[in-house]
Specification:
Elements: H1 20-29, E1 31-35, E2 40-42, E3 50-56, E4 59-64, E5 70-76, E6 81-82, H2 84-89, E7 96-99, E8 103-109, H3 110-119, H4 121-147, H5 150-165, H6 179-186, H7 190-202, E9 206-209, E10 212-215, H8 218-225
Antiparallel strand pairs: 1-8, 2-7, 3-6, 3-8, 4-5, 4-7, 9-10
Helix pairs in contact: 5-8, 6-7
Length: 228
């Protein structure tokens, strides 16, 4: 993997606010590695001692509930930073990160990031904005879980996947989730997620082939998401 100051991925996250000198320093102390699909990047209760920059691939960030089921809080993709919250409050990780597909990640040690946070106000503000955005998303998840039906949540999730990951030339979403992952995002049993996907398929709203999902009618999905 290349040098941080030459990395295109950093333009997609808070690292774009760092000076060239700061990036050169980070480049000298970062470590890069490949992560296989299904591999855990970090687990709940783990000391992170740094942040991860996603160079390639997607991972799911989840929390184990009291009934033993993973609730997927959000999906992290190329260009995102992972672990900044644990870094700033200096606590163990509250969440678990698992690779959905093969990934390339860079790890930046805590001391280097804290040093840059203390000295570069633009970088600090950028990190704060990212944290505020994460909080907003978490607020929306809480409200949706409390007020929306599982069917509404599935429709909304599919729209969000389209907005965040886009689709290929065959109109297939650029993210391939297992039925269990879909269930764990919308907070339901896997059987319910399978049944609802089948219902959407019959209604001509989506096409499904294995893990490939195509959105046929986003207007219809939006209506379902709004409860119509």
């Amino acid at each position: 993997m290349g040098k941080c100051e030459q990395c295109i991925v950093r333009q997609l996250n808070s690292l774009k606010s760092l000076t060239k000198e700061e990036l050169v320093r980070i480049s000298a102390c970062k470590t890069s590695r490949f992560v296989k699909k299904g591999e855990v990047i970090f687990d709940e209760g783990e000391h992170l001692n740094g942040v991860y920059c996603i160079s390639e691939g997607i991972c799911k960030v989840s929390k184990m509930s009291s009934n033993g089921r993973d609730q997927i809080i959000h999906l992290v993709k190329k260009g995102d930073i992972l672990g900044e919250r644990s870094l700033i409050n200096d606590e163990v990780a509250n969440l678990k990160a698992t690779a959905i597909n093969d990934m390339e990640i860079c790890f930046i040690p805590r001391d280097e990031i804290i040093n840059d946070l203390e000295k570069n106000p633009d970088f600090t503000m950028s990190i704060l904005k990212d944290l505020a955005s994460s909080l907003k998303s978490a607020d929306n998840v809480i409200v949706d879980m409390a007020q929306k039906t599982v069917k509404q949540r599935l429709a909304e999730m599919l729209i969000n996947l389209e907005n965040r990951f886009g689709h290929d030339e065959d109109n297939v979403l650029n993210i391939h989730l297992s039925r269990e992952d879909i269930a764990n995002i919308i907070g339901t049993a896997t059987e319910s997620a399978i049944r609802l996907l089948s219902e959407f398929k019959k209604e001509g709203v989506i096409k499904v082939k294995g893990k490939n999902i195509s959105l046929i009618s986003i207007p219809k999905l939006k209506k379902i998401a709004q409860g119509f």
